Protein 1
Amino acid sequence: MKNLYVLALALSSSLSAQTITFKGCINLFDDQTFTFTKTSVDAYNKNIYMTIPINDQQPCGGLGNCEFKIQWNNTLTRWEFLADSGNGDFVNPYLMYYNSTGNSPAANPPSNGFGTWVENTVVTNGQCGGNLTAANSTLTGDVHSSTLTTLNTTKPKIQIFPNPVSDIISISGLDNMTSVEIFNMNGQLIKTDQLGNKINVSALTSGVYLLRATAKDSQIYEFKFVKK
């Protein structure tokens, strides 16, 4: 938990402040406002936002401790509003809302008035008052409300390969890196590299890791990979 908290603070200080303010689902989250901070960018150039600090100390009614994350699910082509299960690691989060209407070009999530943020009643049991709207929620800040909010379509796709990997992992589409860090799934820093787009991971034990590449413009790109 402490390692994850330190990492979150480091990320928030290295990136320009991009925040989202949320208030809603009062029956489960209580009558309080939460602030999401952009913490990183995923492999699809989508921003990731989290309520910081992640320290298991944000009490709220129906879920006990409220720690939230907004991120893009590329497999299902939708934005997701996730609530942590109480460990601060988002390993098995609860899906609270999702929005898949006209959002794929944007780097940031839609507002509560664009598309439909669908309440996941399987988790909420209908206690959130239905889909997010301006009448039952606040969702402001670094959100978009138009399909004109698009990424630069000329930007190359950033990816790592091979995955799974035995010895050398390569990063393509990102030529302005300042550093590469590798963390285990407990948030512990395992390896730091500043030598280029190829990283030797042969010394790592088998398992799942997070590779975090920092670019010269302070953008952070994260990738999960499997070491064979």
Protein 2
Amino acid sequence: MRHLFVADLHLQPERPEIFRAFRYFLDHIAKAGDTLYLLGDIFEYWIGDDAPLPGLSPLFDQLNTLSSGGSSIYFQHGNRDFLVGQALMNRIGGKLLPEETVIALPQGPALIMHGDQLCTDDIAYQEFRTLVRNSDWQSTFLAQSPEQREAIARQMRQQSQQQGGMKAESIMDVNPEAVCETMTRHGVELLIHGHTHRPKIHQDQISQGRGERIVLGDWSESGWYLLVDNGGRRLVTFTPDKD
């Protein structure tokens, strides 16, 4: 069985090239019987299952076709799409996973997550994360009209972009101690995550010779995915064929 992992597509109507890359991935790379893990920030923002971003129906159809053909699709929340709910999972034939989940792979157990919770040096962001993951905050937000939610989401995105431009690059990366503690707590030697947009395979994350961390890449005209099968683990980038 093949296991495919993707994150950080940031799908949005303003970026049709990302739609094209993901549709190519679903048509030509993912196969019936694969297990597909969507590790957060699949959407640039998500204001509720009742108000999806425009133009996503064809992608939802492709995902549903994949799941109907025998594939398993799993979704973890990112910092942009933490309001994805069960209605969307029903639409695509997927299943929501907790934000830290240990899965079985051919080479042994692995911990998967979006990865933003590992950026503990960014104190302001962690405070914001705690706020928006609160069930009361989410209920209040979702009770507003789609137009109101859209306005709030755009304002939050703008503030995030402004603040991100003022932060040191190191602050927005994962904290090594947080990585080690998280892997040790879950009893795993492999961690797979996205969020930082810095695709790479890191070794020695727990101690010398122990602990591998695979960071997924963000998408543009090209895409990134991790393929895990009986032959090993491969972090792959691709560019769709020209029409």
Protein 3
Amino acid sequence: MDLHLLSQLNEAREDRRAAILVTDLDSGAQRLVRRGEEPSADPLATELARRFRSGKSGLIEAANGQRLFLTVSVPPPRLVIIGAVHISQALVPMATMSGFDVTVIDPRTAFATEERFPGTALCADWPEDVLATRPLDAYTALAALTHDPKIDDFPLQAALAAGCFYVGALGSRKTHGKRAERLAEAGVSAADLARIDAPIGADIGAASPAEIAVAVLANVIAALRKEPEAGS
């Protein structure tokens, strides 16, 4: 492998950026494609997008008969949960079993305790302080679950600005309407506001904290793996 490409691939991994190494098995030629930098005219554009979503490497045959191997490097998906609430207690083990690196952030020390979240990456600090040293990125999902604007609003803005693949917030449509007004006043665009999954989670009639956790995780996984619908 070309040392320059290897250096670029390692740099992408360190920065939690997805990249695909395309190797022509006949000629040995290689190129590196970083997510977000792939040209729309790339003949492999559709396949690259699919591989970035699936995270799976593999052999393909191009339209011109080339045999290409795609080595896919994507960062492990993260789920950042704002609020050490009952829904979070159910969501953490579900998301962990599904392969997510999970972090729970809540400045309310009565809620953010080791007893309530054993073995969990738990931050009993304000989200703005935590995210200053652990920034969000495109392979992170954020679920805001506190119902408290003082805690939820900042990480929602940060998640939208960082291009998180999923951004969701707990609350009724009325609550979200007020939230959207606050975020709009703070400078969040209408397009970004439309990205927020609110009321949070898949519409399955969830009632209990565990059921709501299932609904949230369903939409997180769908956002990570499914191809976006046309026009969305």
